Amino acid sequence: MADDAGSSADEATDRGGGAGRAGWSSLAGLIALLKNKRFMYTTLGASFNDVGSYVLMAFQATFYERVYHLDPSSYAPVLAVVLPLGGIIGGVGGGWVADGAASTGRRAWMTVGATALSAPFMLASLQAQDATSSFAALLVGFCLSEAWRAPSANMARGCAPPESGASTVSLYLCIRNLVGGLGPLGVALLAQQLDGDLRSAMLLVPAAYVASAALFAAAEAEFSGEQRAAAAALVQVAVPSAADTPSGALSSVELNGGGGGAAAARVTVCSRAAPR
Q1: Beta-carbon neighbour count of residue 35 at 10 Å?
Q2: Which residues does the annotated region (Disordered) include (predicted)?
């Protein structure tokens, strides 16, 4: 009975978060990932965030020269502190908080919440009246915009079986780089259309972060739906087996987050002898 329940639980997990686990091969696995909604929402959410990050890397120096008329000796030391510091705090802190929030199913605070909150700070940085205010808003905004990295990678990795980890991550990174690289090109084209108005062209950054948050929200919703479907399938396994448990005993089945980092779905069935 235990072996049957275990195998049925594995089948339920496959149905809930399936990315073509059966007969997985390199090409078939990549195609299955491209058809997997959770993987694509997660990857595109990360990609749109990279659009904003790539724009900042390409145009941040030029922005402070043109808009605030600073020379490199003024803005370079500040950017050398603000961007790495924001990246470290956001990246490491986001992963740490996401792990702590996994037990309560609140990983979305990092993937969706922090990303969405970064957009107004980036907008404030671009529209600030002085360079000091711009740098301050940039630090907060960039810190928030980096919090998604660790939980997003974990979400993408959880869409495939363990033996396909390298190919899954490689596809995830490939799509991110392809889409993210369009950011600087887009800003350059926008600036040309706006008569060299780089400040307006760089509004693509907060817009990209809003799109990123929306895609992460779709990924989290997809993951929650898969968890509910798998939990429902596990109930079908647990309820019949409850008849064989001793009176008053608890029969429980727990479904892990499938590598996605959300709270585990737990199904507990209490079986008590019926009164005679």
Answers
A1: 11
A2: 1-21
Structure tokens at 46: 């990360």
Per-residue tokens: 255:
């479904």
- List of residues 6+ apart from 40 with CB closer than 8 A: 33, 34
Tell me the per-residue pLDDT of 196-251, one tens digit each, with 9 for 90 and over. 999 999 999 999 999 999 999 999 888 888 778 777 778 776 655 555 555 544 44
CA–CA dist 143, 268 (Å, integer): 40
Closest alpha carbon to 149 in 88, 91, 211, 230: 91
| DSSP 8-class letter at 266 | E
> Could you read off the pLDDT of 40-69 as tens digits, one per residue?
999 999 999 999 999 999 999 999 999 999
What pairs with residue 250 in β-bridges? 270
Alpha-carbon distance 243 to 269, whole Å?
10
